[in-house]
Amino acid sequence: MAKFKVSQEADYITGHLRYGHREGVIEANSKEDALDKLKNKGYTDYLDLKVDDYEVEDVDYGDNKFEIEEVED
To answer: What whole-number distance in Å separates Cα of residue 40 and Cα of residue 60?
Structure first.
């Protein structure tokens, strides 16, 4: 029996973002240098936002087509 990965785009999603954090990698000579760069030199622009908790209240998929591709074992 074959396996298939299925996806479908949503037209809209409503809800609440609850918690998140920033993370990333910067180059520095020491922990103190990394902290200085983060606090004083704008290196927080290199950090990505990660959402840890959320709540979806409503979603609508409309008539969007299903995307289906076979998955190899």
So the answer is: 43
DSSP lists the bridge partners of residue 70 as: 4
The answer to whether the beta carbons of residues 26 and 38 sit under 8 Å apart is yes
For the chain, state the CA radius of gyration. 20
Phi first, then psi: what are they for 59, rounded to 5°?
-145, 145
Residue 60 to residue 73: CA distance in whole angstroms: 32
Largest CA distance in the chain: 57
pLDDT in tens, 54-71: 999 999 999 999 999 999
